[in-house]
């Protein structure tokens, strides 16, 4: 079996690694991939010309290389219809159609969809005019949440603690065009209090397979402070998602999405990510929808997955998803190492030292997933040659060091030990990933 994974981040490295472990898989191509995917057994990075917006490069590659399934990692190609294009060409692709991907591609679409289908979420208003947006902020007060309407790589969300910060966010998005077209419209939301959790499912149009729960850490600095990022680390499972909360999420959030999309004539297929706020009563509220596996949640979740990811996707493509998968009972925790300046900027070309050797990495309970990495010779594609080349930074979030252990505290310490041995100019990471779960562990001891 030949598989094509679309994307270049830590999520795609984890997906490719899981797929390559399956005995039925001959080749896993990753487009464009990173240094980590280039080094994985049975994996090969490929550069596809897909700049015309019609995804013809992907389709031509699949047809020329007998690709049995395409797994789409990031949101941008989903929003522009890569799954639709593949299906039209007779290629099996795992992900939502462009219509369904609007749940992530447009905050306005998502909020209106939730309102129409009674899915719990924060009160909101949408704006294109800065003066009107500021007047609404004056009425609502702070703290308040400002979101760019479109795709902004996970960074178009500002939690404003003061009116002044909210004004600044409005000016950045609507007046100064900080997020380009993504910020030409903003959604202003009520600030929700509680504990966040990531609830990710596989959906085949009818059947729902909940993945292991997880919790992301969006803020850049320890203590959940600083600017929002694409995610500085995650762990699985999330203790805040009790069985009671799980059942509420399925009944009030996930099932209504599946039912409404099917009723609209656009059955939802692929991964669905509900970013949730769980309040003190254990009631879930949707902060955001993503139409793909979360990053960095994918890394600890897939460290725990014992079922075959290839089998699960194949069953999903056939409309026969099982209701449950097999999981390692141990928790997993991933720490993101980001480059200098992240999230405001990123650094490229800084040599990364201290990476574990791949064979040791695979044999242990710690796995280093690559995200923003490349080789010093970017043109190299030969796996043996790549082992001799320096790995350098190539983006904002560079690596995700992920560990499995008997408890979250031990997983955190195992991940920190490997993280501390890795270095490059300007490397930054949080040392408190998993602090909510660790506090729960300590309270029980």
TrEMBL record:
Q: Which cofactor does it need?
A: Mg(2+); Mn(2+)
One family from Pfam that matches here is: GARS_A
Establish whether keyword Nucleotide-binding is in the entry: yes
Reactions mediated catalytically: 5-phospho-beta-D-ribosylamine + glycine + ATP = N(1)-(5-phospho-beta-D-ribosyl)glycinamide + ADP + phosphate + H(+)
GO molecular function per UniProt: ATP binding; metal ion binding; phosphoribosylamine-glycine ligase activity
Q: In which pathway does it act?
A: Purine metabolism; IMP biosynthesis via de novo pathway; N(1)-(5-phospho-D-ribosyl)glycinamide from 5-phospho-alpha-D-ribose 1-diphosphate: step 2/2
TM segments? none
Q: Which superkingdom does the taxonomy of this entry point to?
A: Bacteria
* Residue ranges of every copy of the ATP-grasp domain listed in the record: 111-318
Keywords (alphabetical) are:
ATP-binding, Ligase, Magnesium, Manganese, Metal-binding, Nucleotide-binding, Purine biosynthesis
Protein EC: 6.3.4.13
Query: PANTHER family from the entry?
Result: PHOSPHORIBOSYLAMINE--GLYCINE LIGASE, PHOSPHORIBOSYLAMINE--GLYCINE LIGASE, CHLOROPLASTIC
Alphabetical list of HAMAP family matching this protein: GARS
Q: What is this protein called?
A: Phosphoribosylamine--glycine ligase
Q: Which gene encodes it?
A: purD
């Amino acid at each position: 079996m030949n598989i094509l994974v679309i994307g270049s981040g830590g999520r795609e490295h984890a997906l490719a690694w899981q797929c390559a472990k399956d005995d039925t898989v001959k080749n896993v191509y990753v487009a464009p991939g990173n240094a980590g995917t280039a080094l994985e057994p049975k994996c090969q990075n490929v550069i596809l010309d897909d700049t015309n917006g019609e995804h013809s490069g992907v389709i031509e590659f699949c047809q020329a290389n007998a690709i049995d399934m395409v797994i789409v990692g990031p949101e941008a190609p989903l929003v522009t219809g890569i799954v639709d294009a593949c299906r039209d060409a007779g290629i099996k692709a795992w992900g939502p159609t462009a219509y369904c991907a609007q749940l992530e591609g447009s905050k306005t679409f998502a909020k209106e969809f939730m309102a129409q289908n009674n899915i719990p979420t924060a009160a909101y208003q949408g704006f294109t005019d800065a003066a009107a947006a500021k007047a609404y902020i004056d009425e609502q007060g702070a703290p308040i949440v400002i979101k760019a309407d479109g795709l902004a790589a996970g960074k178009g969300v500002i939690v404003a603690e003061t009116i002044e910060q909210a004004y600044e966010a409005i000016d950045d998005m609507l007046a100064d065009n900080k997020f380009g077209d993504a910020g030409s419209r903003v959604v202003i939301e009520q600030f929700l209090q509680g504990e966040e959790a990531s609830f990710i499912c596989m959906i085949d149009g009818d059947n729902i397979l909940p993945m292991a729960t997880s919790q992301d850490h969006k803020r850049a600095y320890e203590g959940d402070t600083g600017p929002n990022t694409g995610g500085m680390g995650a762990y699985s499972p999330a203790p805040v998602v009790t069985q009671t909360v799980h059942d509420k999420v399925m009944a009030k959030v996930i099932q209504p999405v599946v039912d409404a999309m099917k009723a609209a004539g656009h059955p939802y297929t692929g991964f669905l990510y509900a970013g949730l706020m769980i309040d003190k009563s254990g009631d879930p509220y949707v902060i955001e929808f993503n139409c793909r596996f979360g990053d960095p949640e994918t890394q600890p979740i897939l460290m725990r997955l014992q079922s075959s990811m290839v089998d699960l996707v194949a069953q999903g493509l056939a409309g026969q998803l099982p209701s449950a998968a097999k999981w390692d009972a141990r928790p997993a925790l991933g720490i993101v190492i980001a480059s200098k300046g992240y999230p405001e900027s990123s650094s490229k070309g800084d040599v990364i030292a201290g990476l574990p050797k791949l064979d040791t990495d695979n044999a242990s309970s710690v796995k280093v997933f690559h995200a923003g990495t490349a080789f010093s010779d970017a043109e190299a594609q030969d796996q043996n040659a790549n082992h001799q080349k320096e790995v350098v930074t190539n983006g904002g979030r560079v690596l995700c060091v992920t560990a499995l252990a008997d408890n979250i505290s031990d997983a955190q310490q195992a991940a920190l030990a490997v993280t501390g041995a890795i270095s490059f100019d300007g490397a930054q990471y949080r040392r408190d990933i998993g602090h909510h779960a660790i506090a729960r562990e300590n309270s029980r001891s």
